[in-house]
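Subgroup meeting minutes
Present: P.N., E.W., G.H.
Scribe: E.W.

1. P.N. recapped why we're keeping a running log of single-chain structure predictions: easier to compare across weeks, and new members can see raw inputs and outputs side by side.
2. G.H. added today's entry (236 aa).
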Amino acid sequence: MSRAVAFTDSHAIGVSAPSKALLASEVRAFVHMRWAAAFARPVSLPVQGEGRPVLVLPGFMASDNTTARLRRSLAGAGFAVHGWGLGRNRGVNADMLEAIDRRVSAISVDRPVTIVGWSLGGLIAREYAKLAPDRVSRVITMGSPFSGDPRANNAWRMYERIAGHPVDSPPVQCTLSQKPSVPTIACWSARDGVVAPACARGQDGERDMALEFDCTHMAFIADPKAIRTIARLIVG
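Output recorded in log:
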């Protein structure tokens, strides 16, 4: 499943990174998110998972610990939910999609898996679904910058320092804005202080549905209302 080094962005939509005020709100949200991941009770969900397999992919510099409240809540409602099992997400590497493929093979025996990806995790989810659509039932992204300028966010400089490659030249061939062939839902928020909302919302043809949330970037995986909405989207 190796792919050559390339990056293609079909268009730049002329948006800039979120404001400093919105970014400041993410600092407070980060503290709450860390607390919620470690200590908050599972959110009571309005749907039943009935054993549906779900794989949750964390954002940049996040891990399975970070997505714990979302996964606890889904598990409590009967979803067969799994973390990605790859430690801290330090950026895309050449072997990542193969690692995701092995993870999907291990957790999804007799039915396709729903992949829920937060931020960078959503980009990885979309690219994997393009390679293995028969193994994926749907993709749900949360604050993931798949559309437009890859620098229209407040994380790209840190990403380049830690990941070791330019944000527009990852070690896998991809066209981020190209929609996977499976149902693809983009969750975005006007309050996002990390990713420009337009980049996470995308345009017609880049996703099947775009759904606005009322939360910060950090709260996609911790806010009770957001978690309930994600559960509904998984069920369809």
